[in-house]
Amino acid sequence: MFKKDAVKLGIAPIAWTNDDMPELGGENTFEQCISEMALAGFTGSEVGNKYPRDTKVLKKALELRNLQIASAWFSAFLTTKPLEETVNEFIKHRDFLYEMGAKVIVVSEQGHSIQGKMDLPIFDAKPVFTTEEWEKLARGLEKLGRLASEKEMKIVYHHHMGTGVQTTEEIDRLMEMTDPDLVYLLFDTGHLTFSGENPEKILRKYVNRIKHVHLKDVRKDVFERVKKEKMSFLNAVKEGVFTVPGDGMIDFEPLFKILDENNYEGWFIVEAEQDPAKANPLEYAIKARKYINEKTGL
């Protein structure tokens, strides 16, 4: 299963230090983070808030550990701010990632997002876009897609809890409204499961448009408590709703099979944000690496 040269394995630094809640793992340094990634057997990373933005400094630190940058999150505000603001920030982000050798750019629309609001219930307060906002989002993403293609890069859209593109219906709408040669999809197992969607159904439908994969699992007992107690997204994370593949309720085998059968090429990124004080990042990175190896041979 999977050609070793076609699929690369990375892990996100959010397990070491949380971008939305920097107090989680605040004591963990950049050097510790990337050293433990390499020690656990990964060859790639996304970019966290402690990563140097000087590309020469960052490249040297990564090369010492045989790591590459796979991508980095970009917050778009196409539904709430003038297009130029998002475009200007995107160009800077694109150029940084291009210099680091990345081929894809993770984009998520943060207009009206509640994912960073500690006091808003993740399900009850979820934003819903107007017809006009959908149009702004679709045309804006196509613009970003064109800018990415200038550097032979692709944008991959990250459906995400607490945003206007979270559910199956919303993913379908975005895919229908955008040019498939400009706007691709990031497939995140954890966010789909958390939202109550069927990851396998989404994967089968859009497998040829999926150019980046985030692997995270969901703890069923915490997930049920999040709904019952009307928790916010950040509190759900603190309580441990997410974990690494193989440690939760998701069956990854059919998902790996579909990706393999459709000759997926690109990155698998383990992205399971947890409180490092409760879930030792190195321990869980090793657990994830072993599980992926067992199921895929990678």
TrEMBL record:
Cofactor(s) this protein requires: glutathione; Co(2+); Mn(2+)
EC number assigned by the record: 4.2.1.44
One GO-annotated biological process of the protein: inositol catabolic process
Keyword Manganese: yes
Domain (Xylose isomerase-like TIM barrel) ranges: 38-291
Enzymatic class: lyase
InterPro entries named among the record's database cross-references: IolE, IolE/MocC, IolE/XylAMocC-like, Xyl_isomerase-like_sf, Xyl_isomerase-like_TIM-brl
Keywords: Cobalt, Lyase, Manganese
Any one GO MF annotation of this record: myo-inosose-2 dehydratase activity
Pathway listed: Polyol metabolism; myo-inositol degradation into acetyl-CoA; acetyl-CoA from myo-inositol: step 2/7
NCBIfam families, sorted: myo_inos_iolE (TIGR04379)
Protein name as annotated: Inosose dehydratase
Organism: Fonticella tunisiensis
